[in-house]
Design a protein that fits this description.
This protein has about 250 residues and is of the alpha/beta class. The chain has 7 helices and 9 strands. It has one domain: Zn-dependent exopeptidases (Aminopeptidase). The chain has a 7-stranded mixed beta sheet, sandwiched between helices. Strand 4 and strand 5 form a beta hairpin. Helix 2 packs across helix 7 and helix 4 packs across helix 7. It starts with 6 loop residues before the first strand and ends with a helix.
């Protein structure tokens, strides 16, 4: 995927009470940065982006008539779901792969990545949420991710879809109930990750800070790598959200 911009907004005038974001939508690296010293085949792996997440976010934007903000830069350049003081913000290694182009960055180079890619993307997210709040709307903040079927040599992850949360579970619990009613679906609750405000950036910054309901969703990437799975799981989540009754 070639780099074109720090973000893309799909359906910016969408009317639904939902704002969708996808922090790891792209595996693209800006030309000014180069190839990071990472092999092309590794840039297709989960270390570079959330496989299947972008088509799902786009499909949900269409299904709900909601705006979706998609990050345009690979997480290997800068991880837009990490706080600025997190050591994995600009990773030196990921899942056993060394990232040579991230070693030895000067303060100016680090600041450029933050300003050009991280801040620009999050300013777009901030604007979309602020526009809703200015109209006295309280949108559901929906953050779309995908996970590997195993990580760092660990065991198999059985969950096909999982919701990550902290103690605020106003939206999480009803949607989990709706998902668990669906036959032949393995559903996770804070598996393999919770939503940790000490490390995660997007949901705390754009939802928790405003007291908004949120869903942070992980799809297992082998289920959503192809178009058929992307459509199926986008519609599974859409149905669960509608059936849960959380939309105002």
């Amino acid at each position: 995927m070639s780099w074109t911009a720090p973000f893309d907004i799909v359906n910016p005038t969408g009317k639904a009470g939902i704002v969708i974001v996808c922090d790891h939508a792209s595996n693209a690296v800006p030309q000014a940065i180069g190839d990071l010293g990472v092999a092309p085949q590794d840039m297709q792996r989960h270390i570079a982006w959330d496989i299947g997440a972008t088509p799902i976010a786009r499909r949900l934007a269409e299904a709900f008539d909601a705006p979706a903000i998609l990050c345009g830069t690979s997480r290997l350049v800068i991880d837009c779901n990490r706080k600025l003081d997190d050591p994995t913000l600009i990773p030196l290694t990921s899942d056993g792969t060394v990232i040579p182009g991230n070693a030895g960055l000067t303060p100016a180079q680090r600041r450029h990545r933050i300003d050009a890619y991280f801040t620009t993307y999050h300013d777009a997210c901030r604007r979309v949420v602020a526009e809703r709040l200015a109209k006295a709307e309280r949108p559901l903040f929906l953050s779309i991710h995908s996970m590997t079927d195993r990580m760092n040599g660990g065991g198999h992850r059985p969950w096909e879809i999982s919701l990550s949360s902290n103690e605020d579970r106003r939206a999480t619990d009803p949607v989990l109930v709706a998902l668990r009613r669906m036959p032949d679906l393995v559903v996770g609750d804070n598996e393999p990750y919770d939503m940790d405000p000490r490390a995660d950036y997007s949901t705390p910054e754009h939802a928790l800070a405003h007291g908004l309901d949120y869903l942070q969703v992980e799809f297992r990437q082998d289920r959503v790598a192809a178009a058929e799975g992307q459509e199926r799981f986008a519609m599974i989540l859409a149905r669960a959200i509608r059936d849960s009754g959380i939309l105002r």
